[in-house]
UniProtKB/TrEMBL annotation:
Domain FMN hydroxy acid dehydrogenase as annotated: residue spans: 1-352
Residues holding FMN: 62-64, 92, 116, 144, 229, 251, 285-289, 308-309
PROSITE patterns recorded: FMN_HYDROXY_ACID_DH_2
Family: Belongs to the FMN-dependent alpha-hydroxy acid dehydrogenase family.
Taxonomic source organism: Holothuria leucospilota (Black long sea cucumber)
UniProt GO cellular component terms: peroxisomal matrix
GO biological process: fatty acid alpha-oxidation
Active site positions, chain numbering: 253
Domain of life assignment: Eukaryota
Database matches in CDD domains: alpha_hydroxyacid_oxid_FMN
Cofactor(s) needed: FMN
Name recorded for this polypeptide: Hydroxyacid oxidase 1
Keyword Flavoprotein carried by entry: yes
Amino acid sequence: MKQTTQLHDPYTVISFSRQLSNVCFYFRYRFQPRILSARDVKDRTTTTLLGASVRIPICISPTAAQYSVAPPKGDILTGLATLKEGSLMVLSSHADVTIENFASEVCPSDGVFWAQTYLFRDRRNTLHVVKNAERLGFRAIMVTVDSPTDFTATSGRSDVTAEHLDPTDRDSAPNIKFLHGKKRENRNYTEDEMWSGNSGAGEIETFCHPTWEDFYWLKSQTKLPIVIKGILSAHAAREAVKAGVGGILVSAHGGRQLEGSPASLDALVEVVDAVRGSNVEIYMDGGVRSGTDVLKALALGARAVFIGRPAIWGLAVNVRRYTILGIDIVTSVVSSICVHHRYTLNKGTVFS
Ligand SMILES: Cc1cc2nc3c(=O)[nH]c(=O)nc-3n(C[C@H](O)[C@H](O)[C@H](O)COP(=O)(O)O)c2cc1C
């Protein structure tokens, strides 16, 4: 069914069909109660991700634009909230805070933080993120591979995005250090200079058709584990395992990239099957909006889920409290179902 309606969220416009497919696929799965069977079930929300312990399997996806939502310290506030909640946050390479400033206020080695990068056109940009992440105590590199080109034109995002961003004096994407083959000048770069149409400097640098060869190069540059973000098929998952990733984030970029790609919850099942037997960890993001959504993803084989928009919405309305809005409620739903019940999904997967 074709949908053309647009949904407005606080900072972007997403085509109804794509956002909604990520969200709606959760309704296709139902819990089957297993009555009178809940003896001695312990709190199961604590887990490890690439060996690091987290209190809840609900982590924060890398998102740019946090500065705009909660100026001037959006990413830092999310980082502090993450520490408080005992969760995991991935810092976006497109954040409007430098990785060094983020680290000086949040101290990544006190918690579990990963640094996200793209396979930038100029490899010095990728190295900038990776080497700083190593030095500053981040535990892994997440590399986003689902954006060979900027799908803005087909994604329903459109220029309206700009209306939601605070156009003031911040330096846009300061972690992208090399633009047009030269070191970035010592001044603030505007949103327009970086992201306008196809000619923005950051745009050209980011959306540059990388290949597996670029991925193997990145792998050779770091001892940190690599998590690949944006896998939606069994084939790509097997290639990623072959390439030596530590984890796979099954993701459709929150419906912001290729129009018509599968919903991530559906792809999760295929990816979990494809990597069975390896010790690669599988996570997913996209459309997680409630505790039962989290449980469904876990039951279908995800080790943890990641959230993008919900964390930013929380940041927008709850900016001073150093909490991720709603994560406590979501967590209590997850633990109460885990602790007090055992459920079976309708596809036969036992969640216990
Ligand atoms: C405003 C915004 C900015 C984003 N920026 C990035 C980014 O810089 N790097 C990246 O890999 N993904 C980015 N994403 C995608 C998220 O990491 C994530 O895949 C997606 O938001 C998950 O879907 P959800 O919002 O339904 O939870 C962004 C998403 C949003 C909404």
